[in-house]
């Protein structure tokens, strides 16, 4: 009976793996990464690209903000500075992936940041249809939560494996300690952890602003919480004001 229980546990574990997003993404080769603003979707894709390239795996990462509502493949080739047809481009990626025993990975980040995000609703079916002919190319796109209905048509939505990026959820304390160390902020002043510290961009702007003001600690109590949000707003202002013409007092 003990051996059967062990076997049953192993079968349950195997079934869980076969039903997981990891296995589905490996099988289907088309992945959609969703997440709220500032949780680190772009950093995640950049890190994946960096690690893959260090391992010699063919990888292409492009930003959706650079695309317009015209032939997507032609724009990719232009962005990469190549002179070839889409078929030659995809054929080379497919062959390169096959030769390395992996899929070449094509990533397009932040579909919602295109000048017209709705264009992807029209363009994605054709993109996926073309990739059907290239089994050694995988596609990963990222999108801010809330834009899914605008960007992904029903005709292709079930072809994507969905996964979500939750930022520093469940590792807030470790993240705060690491950021505080990086910016010279005392650990003793770590405030009561709040939901906002799950958002990497929030934590980053807050720490940068605290450091720029020459402060090394956060006040405790209600004034500390106010300081956190005021610091975040100041950090956003410091980024925007050099680029935009507005009255700082407003």
Fold and architecture overview:
- With 250 residues, the chain is of the alpha/beta class.
- It has 2 domains: 2-164, 3-Layer(aba) Sandwich (Rossmann fold); 172-240.
- It has helices spanning 2-18, 21-28, 41-54, 72-79, 86-100, 119-131, 148-151, 154-157, 172-182, 200-212, 222-240; strands at 30-35, 59-63, 104-109, 137-144, 161-164.
Architecture (CATH level 2) name of the largest domain: 3-Layer(aba) Sandwich
Describe the global form: globular
CATH topology of the largest domain: Rossmann fold
Q: Please, how many domains?
A: 2
Indicate the radius of gyration in whole angstroms.
22 Å
Strand order of the largest sheet: 2-3-4-1-5
Quick check: average pLDDT?
89
Taken in chain order, the helices and strands follow as HHEHEHHEHEHHEHHH
> Which parts are unreliable, with pLDDT below 50 for 5 consecutive residues or more?
none
Number of E-type strands: 5
Alpha carbon gap, first and last residue: 72 Å
The helical percent reads 40-55%
CATH top level of the largest domain?
Alpha Beta
Tell me about the largest β-sheet. 5 strands, parallel
Brief overview, please?
With 250 residues, this protein is of the alpha/beta class. It has 11 helices and 5 strands.
């Amino acid at each position: 009976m003990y051996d059967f229980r062990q076997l049953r546990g192993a079968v349950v574990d195997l079934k869980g793996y076969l039903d997981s997003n990891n296995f589905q993404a490996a099988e289907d080769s088309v992945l959609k990464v969703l997440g709220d603003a500032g949780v680190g979707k772009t950093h995640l894709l950049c890190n994946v690209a960096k690690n893959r390239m260090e391992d010699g795996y063919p990888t292409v990462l492009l930003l959706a903000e650079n695309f317009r509502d015209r032939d997507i493949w032609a724009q990719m080739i232009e962005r990469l500075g190549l002179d070839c047809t889409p078929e030659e481009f995809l054929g080379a990626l497919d062959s390169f992936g096959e030769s390395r025993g992996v899929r070449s990975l094509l990533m397009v980040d932040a579909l919602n940041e295109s000048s017209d995000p709705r264009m992807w609703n029209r363009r994605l079916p054709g993109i996926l249809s073309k990739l059907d002919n290239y089994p050694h190319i995988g596609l990963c796109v990222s999108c801010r939560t809330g834009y899914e209905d605008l960007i992904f048509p029903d005709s292709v939505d079930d072809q994507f494996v969905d996964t979500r990026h939750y930022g520093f959820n469940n590792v807030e304390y470790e993240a705060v300690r690491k950021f505080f160390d990086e910016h010279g902020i005392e650990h003793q002043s770590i405030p009561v952890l709040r939901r906002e510290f799950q958002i990497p961009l929030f934590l980053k702007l807050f720490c940068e602003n605290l450091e720029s003001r020459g402060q090394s600690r956060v006040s405790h109590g209600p004034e500390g919480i106010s300081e956190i949000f005021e610091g975040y707003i100041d950090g956003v202002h410091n980024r925007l004001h050099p680029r935009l013409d507005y009255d700082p007092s407003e």
